[in-house]
Structure formats: structure tokens, C-alpha cells
Amino acid sequence: MKKGIIILLAAASGLSACNKFEKGEGDMTYKIYKSDGKPKIQDGDYVKLNGVQTVETNTNPDSVMVNTYDNERPAFFAISKSMFKGDLASGLKLLGEGDSAVFKLNLDSMEKYSGQPKPKGLKSNIASFTIKIEKVLHKGKDPDSIFEAKKRLFFEAEYKALNEKNKTVEPAKIAKYVEENNLKVTTAPSGLQYVITAPGNSERATLTDTVLMDYTGQFTNKKSNGTLNVFDTSDAKIAKEAGIFSESVQYVPRSLPLGQLPQGVIQGIQLIGVGGKIKLILPSKLGFGENGGGPINPFTPLVFDVELKGIIKPNAGLPLAK
């Protein structure tokens, strides 16, 4: 997996600077840097792929918008007729199973036909997609109804294999995170591992309370660029550094019903008082379990850094402050 990341990032940055790109449809240019000679992708096919999408901003020449390797979740892509000449679908049709390439696409055209607004602060009007085709399910002459059934079975088999892999490597992910960060953890009977950096006062939250807290949730693996792999935070600075900042989000301490949080977070918060700080390492059984949710894959361990700002009792208007 690491080798695939290195190859793709090299293509996204190094190859995009060279002059060996070929002219494709419309405004697209491309560079195929690995071809296994297998049948090319056609309209109607179903593909499993990994990829990195980057844009050039005023502050970063390779600002990553999507990286399936960081998410540890390949994309499944139904190939339809191109929306415009030079879109990603037209690029994928130049590839077959096992092939890799980088495509440069026009962001104005993408915005016009997809309805997705362009990122802010762009220095150029080009998005680079560095793609590795993992598998292809060819439609051939199958009727739609037959192929839909094949697609479902294909996806279920791939998803099951991914989940089994996640389940197998989960303990190693946790151990690696603890070792790499030189943590002296305490392990609870439930399997929760934690480090209390500030105990806080004597108050303890109960399941009926609402807690006011600052927090950052991240995956145990770092991103391919070496930064923290954050999926949620109440801290604007961390959100910006992680590339998940949103203008529509208020980055302030969050008021959350304690009983509705993941079990590992509930257990951890009950170990500290107001003003306390704790790092929590959740095995998936104390997080989102075998089903996952949102950006979180099944059997994924999580790390939360929490500072408890206040405890709001039922029917109380103000938190108990430090």
C-alpha cells in the first residue's frame, strides 16, 4: 500500500511538472505511466480504483482534495457516458485493470457540468487526478438487470475483504500508534487505552449530562504527507492544518449529550473533571464497530484528544465551570 502511495504522489507532483503529457479530449492532458495491456474500460463498466486529487492553491502547489489511501477506502466508480469532453470518465477509458495514470482536468468545466464549486484560493485552473485501476468489472453484452446483480456481488465481495483486512490489522494499528507517539497508556478492562494529561476538578459527568468539550478525532495512521489524519475537530487551527476546515462550522467547544457519544469517549470523559484533558485510543468495538459510519471504515480504531470545559446537568442552564 505504501508503495502505491509513493508512486501516485510522485506522479501527482513530479510528472505534472514534466512536458511529456499527451493531449486528450477537450482540455484534458494525461500521462500513462503504467499499462498492463488489459482491455480498456468502456461505458457501463464498474471499476475499483485508488486515487489522489490535487489542485494548486496560492499557498500549496499540491493541495490534496481527495486521497483514497489516506482514507484507506478505495473508490468504486460506475463508468457512464462523459458529461463533457475531457472529463474524468473519458480519461479512465484510456486505462485497463492494473493501469496507472495522471490526468489534468479543467476546473471550470468540472464546475459547470458537476455543479460542484471550485476550491477557493486557486492559483491555477487545473485539477490533477492520479489514478490506479485496481479491478474492472466489464459489462460486455450483459443486460442491465444481470449486470446490476453482478455489480452488487462484486462490491459485496470487495467490501467484505476490506472489512476482514481491517479487522485483522486493527490491533497492530493501535500498537503502532502507541509506539510511534511514545505513549505510556493505561488500559481499561473494556480495552480503552488512555493518557490523562490533566485530571480536572472533582466533578464527574453522568450519562444524563451534557458535556461541553473541545476535541479532535483522528485516525491512527498519518496522512501520506506526514500530517495528522483528522476527521473531526472543534479547533479551527487544527481543521485548517488538516484540510477539513469549513466556513459553515463554528469552531467552539461543543455541547454534546454524553450518553450519545461513542462508548470509548463516554468512558474516557468520566475519568476526568472539568478542566481535565485526556487522550483516548478507542478500539473499534468502543467506537463505530463493525459497521463504521461516514468517513470511518468498519473495524477502525480511533484517537480522540478531549478537554472537558463544562458539565451541564439536566434542566440546568449553565455548565459547571472550572
From TrEMBL:
Keyword terms, alphabetized: Isomerase, Rotamase
Origin superkingdom: Bacteria
Transmembrane segments: none
E.C. code: 5.2.1.8
Catalyzed chemical reaction(s): [protein]-peptidylproline (omega=180) = [protein]-peptidylproline (omega=0)
InterPro entries on file: PPIase_dom_sf, PPIase_FKBP_dom
Keyword field contains Isomerase: yes
Location of the PPIase FKBP-type domain: 208-312
GO molecular function annotations of the record: isomerase activity
Family the UniProt entry places it in: Belongs to the FKBP-type PPIase family.
Name of this chain's protein: peptidylprolyl isomerase
Species of the source: Pedobacter jeongneungensis
Organismal lineage: Bacteria, Pseudomonadati, Bacteroidota, Sphingobacteriia, Sphingobacteriales
